[in-house]
Structure formats: C-alpha cells, structure tokens
Amino acid sequence: MDNGLDRMYRSMILENTRLLVKGLERLHQAYDLEQVRNHQQLENPWQMDKLRQFIKTSYQNSRDGEKFLYQNPNAELFRFRKLSSLQKEDATCLSGMLLLYHQLQVLEGIPVDQLSDAYETLCNSIRIIQGADMCYLVFRRQTDTRILCASSVNRECLDSQLGSREAEKLLDRLVKNEEIQTITEGVYLENGVEVLDGRKPLENWQDVQFLLLPILLYDAQGANREEQTYLICQRKIENAWNPDSPNTLLRVRDTLFLRGQLAQALMRDLYSLLAGLREYRDISRRSKEGDPLQILHISDLHVTEKNCQVIKKAITRLKLEDGPFDFLVITGDVAQGRSAAGDLERHYDCAAEVIRALAFRMWSEIEGGEQILRQDWKRRTIIIPGNHDYASMNELETQHGENHRASAGGRPAAKEGSAMAKFTYYINFVRKLLDEDIGELIDSNLNEVRRYDKMGVDFLCFNTSIMANPARNNKVHLDKDFAQQVIHRLTSESKERFLIFLGHHGPGYPVDYVSDEYLERYICRNITKQYAEGIKKDLDSDRQLALSQLKDSLEKLEYTSGKSLLDNDFIQVWLLENEEKTLPDAIRNKVIRRRKKTRLYHELTFLLEQLSREETERSINERYQKIIAEIRRTELLSQNDQQAYRMVFEQLNQGLALTACLSGHTHEWNMDRVRNHYVAKRFQWERIEQKPGSDKLERKISLHYGVCKLTWGEEKPNVNYEQWDEDVLVT
Q: Which has the closest alpha carbon to 661: 670, 669, 672?
C-alpha cells in the first residue's frame, strides 16, 4: 500500500479512536440519564445476536478472511476489504472500536448504512482482526451465560450468593485470564461454603460456566449504584428468571466488557497508535551526518488576497544559502485575519499558495528535494496560530446557530467560547494544506506536541494567542502549571533530544493582560502619566486647562465599559454580542472594585482637589512625584509577573533535553531576550518605490527569516540562530 494512503488510514483510526473514547462518556450519559429513550432499540435481540455472531465468526476466521468476507452476513453491512499493511495495533484497536461504534449507532437510532465515507473506509479495515482476543472475552461470557440460562443442571447456581469482595475477586481473575485450575481458590459464598466445595477442580472453560451468571448478576446490580458505570441492562435483575425468555439472555450482555475492558483497551490502543503514527510520520535528516539540523523559521506572513501574488514573487527570488533545511517553522499570523468569514477563508487559501511556494523554494533545488516535495514536505512543515488567526465569531454565529459555532473538518461543532471555534478557519487551513490533523493535541486550546524520533527533536507548540491582544501591548496569558507539566514530561526523557518551544508570543512578552496589575499599569501609563505630565507643564501657563485635563482623566478612570478602554480587547477576539455584554461587564466591575481601593485613585482625586483650591506649586509637585512613584510600583508588579512567565521557559534548560524558543509577532520595538529564545521578524511588504526614470512602481519587500541550527556536540549540544534580512523588489 502507498505510504501516504497507509498514513491516512492510521490518522483516520487515531481520530476515530479519540472520538470513541469520548463516546464512553456519551454512553454513560445516555444510559444513566435517558434510560427510557432508545430502550427498545437497545434491547433488540436480533441486533445483538448479529453482533455476537460477528464476533464469533471474526475470531474463528481471522486467518481465513477472504472466505469470511463472502460468507458472513455482516460483510455487506460493513463493506470489508483487505488492507494487508495494517499492523497488529491497528487491528486490536479496530476490533474494540467497532463494538463501541455499533453500540453508539444502535443507541442513537442511526442506521448503519448512513456511515460517512471515512468511517466506511475505517470499518473496511476490520477484516484483519488479529486482536480479537478482546472481543473473544465478551463472546465467551455471553455464550456461556446463554448456555447456563438454558441448562437445568446449572440452574441452582442462579441463587448463589457471592459477597461483593468475592465477586470482585472472581471478576479480577477472569479479566486477567488467570489459570483455570486456580481461579476459584479461596472464593467463598456468603454462607461460608467454598465455591468449589464438593466439586472437582476446574479443568476447562466449560467448568467455569456456573460461575459466570452470578458474577454478571452481581456486576449488573452493582452498576446501578455506581456513578461511573456503563450499564447495558436498564431493567433491574429480578429473582425470578425464565431461562427460555429471550429478554433474559442479554440483560448483562456487555457489562463486564464495557466496565472493565473497553475503556482500558481503547486508551491502550490509543497510545499504541500514537507511537505508530509518530513512527510513520517520522522523517530522516536532509542535512549530512555531522552537520547541524537546520530549521528555516519565519513568522507573520499576514497574507491577504491583495498581497498574495506579491509575496509569492518575492519568495521565488529569495536566496537561501544555508540549506538544506530539515524543517519549515511558521510561528503564527499566517493570514491577516479580522475579516468576514468568507474573506478569511480566501485569505487562508492564498496563504496555502504562499507556503507551497516557500516549500518549493526550500527543497526543489537540493539533492533529494524532489522526493521531499513528493512525499514528506508536509511533515516537515510546522505551523502554529497567531493572534491574527482568529475566526470571525459573528460570522460563525450566523452560520451555525446560537449554541454551536463551528464545525471543524466535519467534526461535531465546537462549544461556545471554545478555542476550536475561534480558530476554525485556521484549523481547516492546516488540515487542508498538510493533509493531517493538528498533531497530538494535548488540550482544547490547540496546544500540541510534534515528535520526530529519528531526528531527536520534539516541537512543543503553544497557542499563545488565546488571550493575546495587540491593542493591549500584546499581553499573553499562558497556563503556567500546564506548561510546566508538559515541559517536565518532555525534558525528562533524554539528554540527546532537542525540545523546541514554538509560540507566537515568546517569553519576552508580558503576561495576563486582563490582570489587575496590568490594567492598573495601563491606566497609569496611558492616562495618569500623560495628564500628570501635562498638568506639571501647564501649571503656570494655563491652570484651567490642566484642571480640565485632570477631570477628563478621572472620568476615563471611572468609566471603563466595553465601549471605551476595554473595547479593543473584545473586538480583537470577535466575541458575540451576548459575550460583549457579559464578559466586559465582569472585567469592568472587577477593575472598578480594584481601582477604587488603590492609592492611585486617591492620589489623583487629592491632586484634583489641590488644583481646585489653587495650592502651591510645591505641593502639586509633591503629589506629582507620588503619582510617578505609583506608576513605577505598578511597572514593577508587571515586571514581576513577566519574570514569572519567563521562569517557566528557563526551566526548559533545567531538563535533560536541549531547548530553544522560536516565536514571532515582532513590531518596531526590540524584545527582551531569554536564554535560547529567538524571534523571527515579520515580513515587510508595504513599501512602494519608483525606479529612477521609470513610470512603474515597484514594491520593496523586506523578507526576514531565521535559521536555527541544532548541533549535537561531544560534550554539550548547542543551538545557533542567525537572522537574515533580504530586500526584494517586485514589479
């Protein structure tokens, strides 16, 4: 099978596994909170008989799949076909997934023939069920229970009384597949009689039949009292049993399986698949052995329909003399953003053209470049979002309704306020461009880990734009505990690996722009300082003007609704109207309460009183100095907060892995640096020049990019970062 197609199947398996693990929670909610709904469908013996027969036949014919395909009645239903390249972990995962997916379909009343094309392809892969031992456990429990219920010899066991501790002991031994001869040793009924009292030792599974029903009965009854139980049976077990009634055959059909096996099996297979996917996605170095591993780093393309062709032309003329490159890293602001949904989608289409042109420029002229462009350039390209990559939430609202905003790649709509919704167009852009998911997502804010084992490099990609805003000096909020946890996990593995932090806003940027300290600082810097300096300057020339200015500053200090100081904060993130009414109010009230308690407010008020009373210039200067001291105090608070943010990334260097930080978002000011922190300047393309003696205008584009070189030395690995500026004229 083609490697690309194989990777597609594996990615599909992984994504569906994630969804089905979440499906366990849906099962729990549906069974426990909506017991009556879908009850008849759930208890349909015909459906479960068909599923049981499918499991049995799959296990017996796993080595003779072709014969099974055309004889089994489920073959047409699931449209099986042979995928010979699937590995064992895929088949193991698929067998469990199919069971759970079938249960979900039946539960929700969705006909199986309405499966999406993607899941039909996935179900085709079930043909090779070498991991059917997981299903076989369920099949044996169900079959033996049926035999037991229909057997007069074992009917006496229906009245067996197993205590909770003894039942749990047997369940644990059965699940662990311990030796049959010892599985009941030391297990007693509540009357003190040993289970095997007066019987010969167990020799085979048939001798275990009489144990199964009491265990499953206890398990089902106990499930009614446990919060985290996935209970198939909705009707309480009664003392009077009719072994010939079909309603009794499957009352407890999957309790043991769903409770004890499926969740663990899916999670185990999920980790196995992640490892498999990493292996399939892994790539080899393009640089020669012993040469540095090289990363081409750019940022802030800000692509629109208007500048797309200009940037593409500039890229074709770009001179990249430091290749060959192993990775292309783009740290945010791919599109200009802040546009209507339709425009934003077109901007991302243009951005995809630009990135393809850049990849072609990087790898087309090197040895083996044709193979890279044909096979794995997409796996060598890593993109993270910036603050300009937000979607227009108002547009999404009109498209997807009040409670659900976005549907990313055909998946269930993201909940209100979710980062997945705000970055919907960015997510779809990445999936479409790179033909894969967003990597190993490690939380709902699009933070991810990209691992390359053969290269010895891990990329820790943070979405720092969730709470970032250029209207507020680019303050960033990042969960420090989360960052430390992930960093600790990755840096503790090997000293021979590089760990590269990617974030649009690097550690040099301040944090938490909605914190009390920051807002206090903002008020000081942008209002108080301005007017205080004006007052001092204008005291002698125009006292009334100074008094008017200070009154204005106090009014602005008093009123900070979503339409004044905080307005841009919420325009930038494209909140809905109801959010603009609630969230700004909450922040505004918090700020007002904080502000009224600060000395700053009292100092300004007192200064206003002094001006009104025409106090001496000396007293006014004293008050002015106090205001400046207050400003410095709030500056220090913000610096302390910023230092705490930096400490998170300083910890990168305390682990076993060598680390570096790549970011973007640079403006006209210079950012402070932390150790091994490197910034890619934005592309400047707006400048227009005219050739001497020519009527034509040329656009002068300054292409800024960085080359990060990672070298494994004999004593200590090292990182070298070089920034390049190249001016390109485009007619």
A: 672
What's the sign of the alpha-carbon dihedral 396, 465, 376, 117?
negative
Q: What is the pTM of this model?
A: 0.49
pLDDT tens digits, residue range 630-689? Answer: 545 544 444 554 555 555 555 544 554 556 777 776 643 333 444 456 777 666 655 566
Find, among 490, 498, 503, the residue nearest to 292 by Cα. 498
- For the chain, the structural domain boundaries read 3-132+260-279, 135-257, 285-389+683-731, 516-644
285-389+683-731 CATH, one of 1.10.8, 3.40.50, 1.10.10, 3.60.21 = 3.60.21
Q: What is the identity of the amino acid at 337?
A: G
Strands (E), 361-423: 381-384, 404-406, 414-415
Q: Name, in order, each residue with C-beta under 8 angstroms of 562's C-beta and a sequence gap of 6 or more.
A: 570, 580, 581, 584, 585, 588
Alpha-helical segments (H) within 369-423: 369-371, 393-400, 419-422
Report the Cα 596 to chain-centroid distance in Å: 40
| Helix, strand, or coil (residue 163) | coil
Query: Which has the closest alpha carbon to 573: 709, 701, 507, 475?
Result: 475
